[in-house]
Every structure is written in structure tokens, then in C-alpha cells.
Design goal:
Mean pLDDT: 78
Low-confidence stretches: 41-49
Helix content: under 10%
Number of helices: 1
Number of domains: 2
CATH topology of the largest domain: OB fold (Dihydrolipoamide Acetyltransferase, E2P)
Distance between the termini: 45 Å
Structural class: mainly beta
Radius of gyration: 17 Å
Number of strands: 11
Order of helices and strands: HEEEEEEEEEEE
């Protein structure tokens, strides 16, 4: 097994994401190396090194592939459906969007990152609530 040096700055950064987003666990993979930071009853813990995929939890359904038309979260963070509090949301079901149009924002590390439409289409469903934490790869919006 190849040596894996723990990047303490990365662990601290991931810990900060837990605080900022209210998540209890975050995992970062680079090739076959993995760092997982979690916050539980025992405090902070991290694991590293090559790892197998985590076992499926019983309440999860089997993986069936990507949802057709789904726009997924490019990062872990907190989703915002409007540009500012009290303003109308970027999109609502039934809206027609153009490729590159901002659909929502994800706040990560105190930075607001726009999630843009990968293609033109009609918003069929918005799958997340405003100010909800999201995971990398989570379905956010369905475009038809």
C-alpha cells in the first residue's frame, strides 16, 4: 500500500465545512485515497487510505443510476434558491431556462457558488428546500 500523508489543512478545512453546513460527515477522495471527517458523539474522527465503497444503509434504495434530466450538486454546501433573502427564487417549476442560466446557489466555505443549467430546458421539479444542506452529487433540479 502506498504511503498516505494526512493533509492537516485539508482535515481542518473539511471540519470547517461540517460547522458551516450542519452536516455530520464529509468525505474527500483523490484517486484511491480517502479522507472522511465526521462529527458524532465521540467528536471528530478521520480515516484515510484506500477504501471500499461504504455499505448501503438499510433505508436507502439500491442505486439505479442517475436521474434523467437531473442537475446535481457540484459540491457540499447549503443551497439557496434566491439571490438574496426576500427576493423571488431564481427558478420555479414550469420555468424555461437557457444553458448557463443560474438555477440556485450553493454556499461552501462562506462563498456563494452559482449552479448553472447544463442545457436549456423546462424546470420540471425542484428537489431541495431553501437553506438545506446538500451533498456532492445530490439531485437538485430536474430539467426536461
Amino acid at each position: 500500500m502506498a504511503k498516505f500523508d494526512v493533509d492537516e489543512a485539508l482535515v481542518r478545512k473539511l471540519s470547517g465545512l461540517l460547522d458551516d453546513t450542519g452536516l455530520t460527515e464529509i468525505e474527500y477522495r483523490a484517486g484511491e485515497q480517502t479522507i472522511r471527517v465526521s462529527r458524532g458523539a465521540t467528536g471528530m474522527a478521520f480515516a484515510h487510505g484506500p477504501s471500499a465503497a461504504p455499505p448501503l444503509k438499510q433505508e436507502e434504495s439500491p442505486v439505479t443510476g442517475p436521474t434523467p434530466g437531473a442537475v446535481t450538486a457540484p459540491m457540499v454546501g447549503v443551497v439557496y434558491l434566491a439571490p438574496e433573502p426576500g427576493t423571488p427564487p431564481f427558478i420555479k417549476p414550469g420555468d424555461t431556462v437557457s444553458e448557463g442560466e443560474t438555477l440556485l446557489l450553493i454556499e461552501a466555505m462562506k462563498t456563494f457558488n452559482p449552479v448553472r443549467a447544463p442545457r436549456s430546458g423546462t424546470v420540471s421539479r425542484i428537489l431541495v428546500a431553501d437553506k438545506a444542506p446538500v451533498e456532492f452529487g445530490e439531485d437538485l433540479v430536474i430539467l426536461e
